[in-house]
Each structure stands twice: as structure tokens, then as C-alpha cells.
Design a protein that fits this description.
Blueprint (H helix, E strand, L loop, with lengths): L1 H24 L12 E3 L6 H9 L7 E2 H6 L39 E4 L14 H5 L7 E4 L6 E6 L2 E6 L7 H17 L1 H12 L5 H25 L9 E2 L1 H12 L15 E2 L11 E2 L5 E2 L3 E4 L2 E4 H13 L21 H11 L17 H13 L21 E4 H4 L4 H8 L1 E3 L19 E3 H17 L7 H4 L23 H11 L8 E4 L20 H4 L23 E4 L4 E2 L4 E2 L10 E4 L26 H12 L2
Parallel strand pairs: 1-6
Antiparallel strand pairs: 2-4, 3-4, 5-6, 7-8, 9-10, 11-12, 13-16, 14-15, 17-20, 18-19
Helix pairs in contact: 1-10, 5-6, 5-7, 6-7, 7-8, 8-9, 8-14, 9-10, 9-14, 11-18, 13-16
Amino acid sequence: MRRQGRCVRQFLLVFAAITFSLGHAWGQTNSPALPPGVIPLDQGWTDDQRTLWYTTTQGSRLVPLDWMLNLEAASSTSAQPKKFAEDLARLGYLPNPVTARNPHKLPLGFVVDHEPTRAADLMCDTFPETCDAKTMRKPWVGLNCSACHTNDIRFGGKAFRVEGSATLADFQAMEEEMLKALKATADDPERFDRFARAVLDGEFSDETSGSLNRQLLEHVAWQQKLEDKNRSKVRYGHGRLDAQGHILNKVSLVARVQDQLDTVAADAPASYPFIWNTSQQQKIQWNGIADNQTTIDIFGIKTDVGALVRNTSEVIGVFAHIETDRGKAFLGYDSSVRLKELIGLERQLAALKSPRWPETILPPIDGAKAARGKAIFDAMGCANCHQPLAWDDLTSDAREKMVQIKEQKTDVFLACNTFLHISKSGNQGGQKVYGVTGDRIGEIDATRNMLVNAVVGAVIGKFDELLAGVFTNVFPPDKARVGALVRAENALPGVSDSIKKSMAAQCLSQDNHPLLAYKARPLNGVWATAPYLHNGSVPTLYDLLLPAKVKNVGAGGPDPVGPTRPEIFAVGSREFDPVKVGFKSDVIEDSTDFVFRVRDEATGEPIPGNYNSGHEYGSGQLTEEQRLELVEYLKTL
């Protein structure tokens, strides 16, 4: 009892400090939030809140700040030098104005994390020279949630900002080009000399230069491990990321197992979900991997533990440093995760309203046409899954619905990969999944259980064991799936990859497993969230109301009669199409846009991960006029 009382007192003190500091951190910034000419929509945020959203660290640590500022792009030459950070706009990352909170002109969502004490010395077995040189204690650059959940839309020569919408950046290319740039710097003596003199400045010497070279090689080796682990043959392109695959593979690596299993590749890219009303949903992520609305109330402030879990998982996957080999989850794991900032950002996100169709910029909505569209929406029973929610309703339950993948008949692999992902548990083996409770993690176990253990440990590492008990309500128990691949002749017709066919067959044969479903949620603001479906495989709302040719089960059958969803389209343009509702998606030769393909260009086979099937529900029977009326109604939400 004395220990429990001490834990409660410690937690109250920590939470009081966090609450106090949030009141100060979330104050005025007196900084311009948007670049000149970009129009903000009324979503309930002030410029100060936008600036904080764009620049607040969550504990992500990609590379040291002085490396980011001086690293040359792999394509850079001495005759035509080009910095890597300055090249990120080409990959779709938005510019962010130079302010006191962004003095280095980093792109939006690329933020500085600085821990000058020994608490920053993490993962020193992986980065021994980096720790010895105390580089861990210098400012670092990582990403926060705004990098992936902010977008600009352009129409008629104007641009407007949508907060909480899906980025059109190419995360996969960013990681690959970062690794290429680091390798090119390490391999080219002249390039490295320029880099070392800029980074070390007045401290340049043979000794410091040698140390920097060893640090650089450590980071090349680590990022190569991550790339090898993810090893996706599927190109993500603009606007997609296999976030769950990256998170699970990162957890598998930090378990510090020498002989890794050949785990599931991160080859199921998903469209970035729009995140307004997230706090009002029961489930998080496209496949409802965890429950969202487990709360505790301290000093009258409701703290959503589900949101804390979601954000901690995200930071772990996107470059946070974490030590799972310095103890046990119930004692807490040392990490770079910033819980105070995560709580502050989540509280701000809960105040974000969905965007309304801006009739001063886009063509006005045809009211009569939209009314006919609503009648079609109601008659088709769309509200059975997509419950209505007003644009400014920030309190009602979102009442989202989880629909099994075999019922939706859409691409299975985002859900399936998570369901089948197993790993050797390493130093997490034998621990209880939830730190102080739950089954013990086996020598080989579901990687999701290892993720739960890592998240619990990272949060307890900041808050103490008082929180441990709530995690059983956030992460439902899960079991490892280890066994022979099943026969799969009927799955993924037209695909020759026997492993992917067997994986799909295993997932489609399950009865109502909670992980093998995708979330249907309210559609307020959906007009601003192209491309569509969970994997971004449909360019516009109009195209979503057409049937697909590709099927994920059965013999395939004849093609649908009439128009079908496009199987090739471009992604990356921010020019808006107000008729079909989405971005311009014509494939233009020599464009930098990414070309999305449902089928392999060489073989014609459907690409697992890129299926554009599912969510048809009779829409193929609509007339052209009815489709346009339904699209007009969706603009009003």
C-alpha cells in the first residue's frame, strides 16, 4: 500500500508539472503560421495553434540537426550543390515559414528535439560512437504528426490549407534518399570533407573528423537495417505509408535479436487517415488495432490513454530512440518519447473541426442536386456505416463501424500483415505483455504484443506504474500465429506470388477476428481527403462510386459492364477537381507525380497492396447523373 501510495503521489506530481507546462507551452508564438498566399480554412485553430502543431517535438530523432542542415542530396555535385533538406519540397513536403520556432527553415512537420542531459544517451549499443561523442545530447531533427496530416489544396490560382488531412508527401522516397545521401557522404572523401567542415565548424580536426565519420557509418548501418527489414517491393508514392509495417519492424529490431525472423515486409501502404474527430472514435488506425477511449481524470482534465498509445506507437515507429534492453516494461523503458508534448498536441487536436467546402474558392455547391444526392445516400444505407457528424461537433461519439475485410472485399494486406506479423522477442521475451499483467511474451510471438510491451514501457518510463493497468483496455490480448501456410488457389486470382496468396487465404479464412477489419467512420470533410479507400487506390469520390475490375477472391469473373475505377492514375498534384472531387490525376509524361498502378506494368498481374476493389455496395448500378448527385451531397459534409 505504501508503494502504491508513493506511485500515486509521483504520478500526481508528474501530471501537475505537465499540466503547468502545457499551459505555458500552448501560449502565444507571435509567428506567421502559413506561407504567403496560403488561405486558412475555419477549423477552429488560431495561428498560434497552427504554429505549435507544425513545430512541436514528439521525440522523433532522424538525424542530428547540423547533419540535416549540411547533408548534400545524393544527386548533388560540387558544380551544382543541393542540400537534402532543401530537396524535400520535391518529395511533397510543405514549406514552413522561418520563425523563432523554425529558424532553420525546415519543412512543415520536421521539428527539432533537444535533450542536453545524459537522458539523451539512448541506443548506445547501436550508436556507440554517437553516444561517446555526446552527439545524442545535441539538437536532432525528427518528424511530428503534422508532417503526415497537413495538406494544401490549389484551385483557380489560389491555395488553401487543410489541417488534419492527408499529406501528399512521399515518405518512402524521403527515407531512401536520406540513406543514399548519407552513403554518398560517407563514400566520397571530398563530399565528406565539405560535410565535416560544416558540421564541426571551429572544432574540425583529424580526431573530430574521424569520429564524425564513424558516427555517419553507424547511422548508415542502422537505416540500412530498417530499409532491409521493411523491404517493400510495392512503391508507396505520394500520400501513402505503411505506418503499421514500419512500426512493427522497428519494434522487432529494437528487441535486439541477432538472428531475426524473416518477418512481414512493410508492403501494405495506406492512405494517411484524416484525423479530425479522432478523439471521438472508439478504434484507432484503419484496422482498429487498439481501442481509443480509455481515459483517466486528474485535476478535472480528461486524458485519453488510447490517444497516448496511438501517438507513442507512431513516434516509436518514426525514428524515436527507445531502450527495451535496459530493464522490464513494468519498470519503464528509457526513450526519447515526449509525453508532455504528445498530451498537448492531442488536446489541441481534439479542438480541430472538419473542413467545410470553401465556396469563396471552389465552385458553389448545387443545393438541389445535393438534396437528391442525400436521398440516394439514405436509400443505399450508407449511414449504416458512416454515421452523420456535424463539422463542428467535437463531443459526440463518432460511432464508427469495423467491417470485416472479407465483407468489404477490398485489399486485405494492411490488416493481414499486422495479423500475421511475428518476431523473435529477444529481450522482451518472458515479460508480461502489459508490463505488470497479461500473458508472457513467447520466444516467437505476435509482433503486436512486443509493440504493446514497448509502448507500455515507454509511457511508464515517464509516468510510473500507475498507468500500467489501463493498457489492457486499450490493447485487446492477441496471440502469435505460427504455422504452415495454407493452400490458397482461390485467393488473389491472377497473382502468381504463392506467399502473398497464402497470406491472403489465411486472413480471409478467419472468422471475425478484430484485427481483420477496416474502419468506416463519419464522412464530414471527406471531400478534402483524396485519394480514397484505406490504401489510396481510388483518385476521386466519383471514381469510388464505380465498380472495380480486380477481385481479391474467387475466379475473377467477367469485367463489370460500363465504366470502372481507373487502374492507373497520377498522385502528387495538389490541383483540385471540384467535379469528381479529388486531385488532378492525369498521367503526364515527364511529370514528377507518382503513377499509381493496380497491376504490374510488365506482367499485368494485380499488385497485392494496390487493389482498388471493395466498398461498392451497389454503386455500380448508379446512373451517371446519380453518381454526380451523390458526389454533390458529399461536398456538403
